[in-house]
Structures are given as C-alpha cells and as structure tokens.
Amino acid sequence: MTRRSFRFWLIALPVIYGLLSIADLFSTGLLHFLVPLTTALTVVILAGMFQRRISFLQQLRTTWTGLVDAVQDAVQFTELTQPEAPDFAKLMKKLGVAADNYRSLFNNLEGSRRAGWFPPFESLKRLQETISEYYLAADYSDAKQQKACDQVRDFWKQVRSPLLDEFDCPDPPSWEGEEPSGGSFF
C-alpha cells in the first residue's frame, strides 16, 4: 500500500464512521446498538491497512538494496577502460532484475493517465539502454565514459526520488556551520 493510499484510508475511515454516527442520531438509533460491531470492523480494517503498509515497506527495502547494488555496478562498468562481454551480460541481467522488482512494487501508479508522465522504473530501462549503447559502440574514450557515467547518475536520481518519498524519511537537518542540537559529538 503506497503512502498516498494509506493516508487516504487513514482519514476516510474515521470520517465515514463519524458520518454514520451523525446520521444515526437522526434516525432509529440502530448504530447505538451496533457500536461494538462497527468499532471492531473499523479496527480490523485499520489493522489490515497497517499490515499492508508494513509489508510494502519491507519489500521496498529489499528492492532498494538491489537497486543500489545494480546502479553501483553500472557506474563501475562505465569506468572500465575495456569492458568485457561477461561483465556486460552480468550487469544487464542485474539491471533487468532490479527494474522488474521495482515495477512489481509500483504496477498501478497514479498519474499514469497524465500526459508526459512516465513511471519511475522507466528511468531504469533508460539506464539499461545507456549502458547497452556505451558497450556496443566500443568507444571507451574518457569523454564517452564520462558521458555514460553522468547519464547513469542522472537516471539514478530519477529512480531514487520516488523511493525515498515512500520511505517517509524526513530530510536530514543541515549542520553546516552549526552545532547539532544536543551538544557536541564528543
């Protein structure tokens, strides 16, 4: 369950419950007798939502580890002076597996209906194309290496951003020129 849908249901369920309670005040009072059932049902639904979110985050962490490993290998590949075919094949397999794992997490993303929008795993496919073009061109000059490495890093930034948003991690504080709160490190 993505962060967006989780937040929606976390707000929607109490609102629905509250509206039913208000509507019941003006009718037969049946909800008064069903309070234990409706409360239990709401708790069960919320527990299921929390479980889905926790499961999603666990899968996301596993996928994150694979993505970081694959992208680091791609950066290292662009820095080889004479890349070999086995290295290329291993890297393409690793990038393909990482893209499919990523796609499996975000298969029904909102926004797919917007013009000009593409899913975050599309950048992984473009990263694969960049590595493939670099290797198959057989021109491993410093300029080509740098261009391929820069493209890999740019695509990684596009892939990384939606994942970090899903982790719900706040931005770290800026400690430039300041001492962090809580005193000295020593």
Features:
disordered C terminus; 6 helices; 186 residues; rod-shaped; mainly alpha
Question: What topology emerges from the helices and strands here?
Answer:
Elements: H1 3-25, H2 30-33, H3 35-78, H4 85-105, H5 122-137, H6 142-166
Helix pairs in contact: 1-3, 3-4, 3-6, 4-5, 5-6
What does this 3D model show about the protein?
The chain is an all-alpha fold. It has one domain. The protein has 6 helices and no strands. Helix 3 runs antiparallel to helix 6. It starts with a helix and ends in a 20-residue tail after the last helix. The C terminus is likely disordered.
Report how far the terminal alpha carbons are from each other: 42 Å
Helix and strand succession?
A: HHHHHH
Annotation field: number of helices = 6
Residue ranges: pLDDT <50 for 5 or more in a row?
Answer: 182-186
Give a short account of the largest sheet. none
* Domains, number: 1
Overall pLDDT metric: 78
What structural category do the secondary elements indicate? mainly alpha
Level of helix content?
Answer: over 70%
How much of the residues is beta strand, in percent?
A: under 5%
> What is the 3D form?
rod-shaped
Rg, please? 24 Å
Number of strand segments: 0
Short description:
The protein is an all-alpha fold and 186 residues long.
